[in-house]
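Open question from group meeting: does this chain pack into something compact, or does most of it stay loose? Before anyone orders reagents, we agreed to write out a predicted structure and look at it together. Recording both the input and the output here so the notebook holds the full record.
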Amino acid sequence: MTTTSATAAASGAPASTAATGHVLAAAGRVLIAAIFVLSGIGKIANPQATIGYIASAGLPFAPAALIGAALIEVGGGLARIAGFRTRFVALVLAGFSVVAAFAFHAHFADQNQLIHFLKNLAMAGGLLQVAAFGSGRIGFDKR
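Structure tokens returned:
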């Protein structure tokens, strides 16, 4: 009996269900990481616009914030895709999402900003689930 089938048998689920869960966990990692990687690349591609946006939100040290945000988004996103240090990276990205929600999208009278605020909180919620339950079997954490 393989580890997957032993785990599935212990949980009462068929082996195919357990295997599907691991594939879904890996797919979820990629999907949630995509927004971070693409956003980070966008910041790198147009740094002056990002610095201006950070400054317009009243945050200090906009150039340093740009570098930090790009590193967190691209580095964290790629680590999520690879399943590397999954729980830690998920916590960092969850915190980043909450901070970004309050710093940039807390203008609740503007429905678009409210949607962005709630999107960031939803991403943080999904990332907290990953932090709690891990990456599944597919990824560097399980090697």
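Observations to bring back to the group:
Confidence is low (pLDDT under 50) at residues 1-9.
The chain is about 80% helix and 0% strand.
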